[in-house]
Amino acid sequence: MLKQQIAERLEQAFSQFGFAEPNVAQLKTACQVSLRTLYKHYPSKEAMIVAALDFRHQRYLDFLQDNAPEAGTPAIEHIFQQLQGWMETFAPHGCLSVNALSAYPENAQIHQAVTEHKQAVIHFLGQQSLRPDLAHSLFLLHEGVSSAWPVLGQAAVTSALHTIQQLLEDTTNDIAH
After folding, report:
1. Residue 141 domain-assigned?
2. Considering the domain boundaries, does residue 113 fall inside one?
3. Which of 29, 52, 70, 95 could serve as a FRET partner for 2 with CA atoms 20 to 30 Å apart?
């Protein structure tokens, strides 16, 4: 339980301060534990980042599914509306996973954590849309919203939803012909 609480607090600290600024002493304070306890559970700053990313991954998927309609187009629209709420509340500076990868581009553990998260999102989008053939396209729109959010805000979501409607119409028309 303590390990999970530390991961949650690490996620909050990295989300608030980024990856360059907080040193381990600051992270210890944010986690409200001793340095010994922090290192017992996460023996390096990189391990702390992976723990934060893993915690955030599950929290993110749970958030997207909150009050979700049945799978299909309504579910995808809901996911992108939830994405807007996530960006407004938890990620105004963009995707934490991408930021971690940018801060530590050579770290294999962080790269693996981000890759697994992104692969899970692709799978989730394919599953929820009932269109696994469109999973990568939906993922690119999802990532576009996350990346463009700091500059475009809600307009990124509006544009993505419009593109999704066109994509689904076009592929439905292609199937009908």
Report:
1. yes
2. yes
3. 95
